[in-house]
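Homework-ish question, so no full write-ups if that breaks the rules, but can someone show me the predicted structure for this set?
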Amino acid sequence: MQVAISILSISDDMKKIKEIDSLHPDYIHLDVMDGIFVENKIDFNHLTLTNPLDVHLMVQNVKKYVDIYAKMHPSYITFHLEAKKDTWSIIQYIKSKGIKAGIALNPQTPIERVKPYLKDIDMVLIMSVEPGKGGQTFIIEMKQKIEMLKKWKKDKNFTYIIEVDGGIHTDTAYLCKDADMLVVGSFITKHKNSKKALVSIREKIEKHV
Ligand code: DX5
Ligand code: ZN
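A: Not a homework solution, just the prediction itself:
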């Protein structure tokens, strides 16, 4: 299981961002918001980071932001199914840039809605909090969605990875044991010893997988 650290909650603290980057998580998770799809607005395209990037677009005009963030050469770009754009063409558009494509689902969106795309995507991101801000509580019902995705993956030999995002810390990580990648934000970035926090999350994961 891999860990991506979300720097959303420390977006205005360059010193802390550099410190997190130096911890070498598997990925740095960039939460991009346009002030339309969600209330907040945030951009990270000015940053220079040393770790692989996992870009999570919480935006309405997906292609515009794919163009902006493709320039950072991320490993993944994920967009929301709820953005209601031409989903197929966006998947192809991301892949045409040599970037892996993911689809994110809000907590209230039924998991069945992602089914038609599973064969063609590299990641499904299950939101375990409402999109828009860090530091929220994990919605426990999301566990069933993760299990369902794992079952479909196994049954049909799909290759997508399952990512879970929001409210993950040492007491909630076990709810995601069927996932492939966890996004952890404030638990690590707001911890007084971020290095220790990352180690403790990794230990919890190993115990439960
Ligand atoms: C929510 C974001 C998440 C979140 C993670 O809109 O997509 O990445 O910030 O942060 P924590 O771990 O604080 O919930
Ligand atoms: Zn995110």
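Now go work out the reasoning yourself. Hint: The chain has a mean pLDDT of 97.
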